[in-house]
Design goal:
Layout (H helix, E strand, L loop, with lengths): L1 E10 L5 E11 L4 E5 L6 H8 L7 E6 L2 E2 L5 H11 E4 L11 H11 L4 H14 L15 H13 L5 E5 L7 H18 L2 E6 L10 E6 L2 E7 L2 H8 L7
Parallel strand pairs: 3-8, 3-9, 6-7, 7-8
Antiparallel strand pairs: 1-2, 1-4, 4-5, 9-10
Helix pairs in contact: 3-4, 3-5
The protein binds adenosine-5'-diphosphate and magnesium ion.
The site of adenosine-5'-diphosphate has 12 residues, from β2 and α1.
């Protein structure tokens, strides 16, 4: 469960930016929530705070009733590795490693056996349509292919919670459909909590609920009906 209370993030610099101006919401385990809003509305900032990649200026974040501000840096890193998956908007892949090595890294760091992490990573790369790119270096992959490696890496440790920052931004229609259906399937089968950022209207139809951000505050919330979700999940549905 994610419980956010009055979250504020101010970036201090030459210009002070009030990126989050007091955001509060709750997300239950197993919910798939989309964060929508125009560019600059604070979507990535919000995800960074929730995934313990940055420190909020004020406010509280509870992850499964743990007040994360009380964790040391070392505890945060351990918590992230074990419980959180993250698809970065800019991928953040390691260029010296190939697709499968990038994918299995979190599982390897968690101490899984080679056989186990190799199998899990191969399966995921196949699921995102990269079965024939497993041993390609990151520099040998297109933007869309790199994005799918980043998605596979975020999914490999079957974390309780997955954060995905515009995970379909560089994908074509077919791959958008594959990725969004995969996220929905993981949410249903593993009970994974998913927070996906997007600014493309149609993509929210795969989720349960939408939080709309504007200028660092929640503008409105929207519930997606089962009919809309089921219709989006049909194979024929084209996510443009
Ligand atoms: N590291 C940073 N330092 C200063 N300002 C930042 C930083 N990151 C984001 N911002 C600013 O905070 C606001 C929200 O940014 P961001 O969360 O990236 O928006 P979104 O993901 O919705 O496009 C923007 O005005 C952006 O310029
Ligand atoms: Mg962003």
């Amino acid at each position: 469960m994610i419980n956010v209370k009055d979250l504020v993030k101010i970036y201090e610099g030459q210009v002070t930016v009030h990126a989050l101006k007091g955001v509060s919401f709750k997300i239950e385990q197993g919910e798939f929530v989309t964060i929508m809003g125009p560019s600059g509305s604070g979507k990535s900032t919000l995800l960074h705070q929730l995934a313990l990649l940055d420190k909020p200026t004020s406010g509280q974040i509870l992850l499964d009733d743990i007040d994360v501000s009380k964790l040391s840096e070392h505890e945060k890193t351990a918590y992230r590795l074990k419980n959180l998956g993250y698809v970065f908007q800019e991928y953040a892949l390691i260029p010296e490693l190939n697709a499968i090595e990038n994918t299995y890294l979190p599982l390897m760091l968690l101490g899984a056996r080679r056989k186990e992490y190799t199998r899990a990573s191969t399966e995921l790369l196949e699921k995102v349509g990269l079965g024939n790119r497993v041993h390609h270096l990151i520099s040998q992959l297109s933007g869309g292919e790199q994005q799918r490696v980043a998605i596979a890496r975020a999914l490999v440790n079957k974390s309780k919670t997955l954060f995905a920052d515009e995970p379909c931004a560089n994908l074509d229609t077919e791959n958008k459909g594959i990725v969004l259906r995969l996220l929905r399937q993981l949410c249903n089968e593993l009970g994974q909590t998913i927070l996906m950022v997007t600014h493309e209207l149609e993509q929210r139809e795969f989720s349960d609920r939408v939080i709309w951000l504007r200028d660092g505050i929640i503008e409105k919330e929207e519930i997606i009906s089962k009919e809309v979700r089921d219709s989006a999940l049909r194979e024929e549905y084209q996510v443009i």
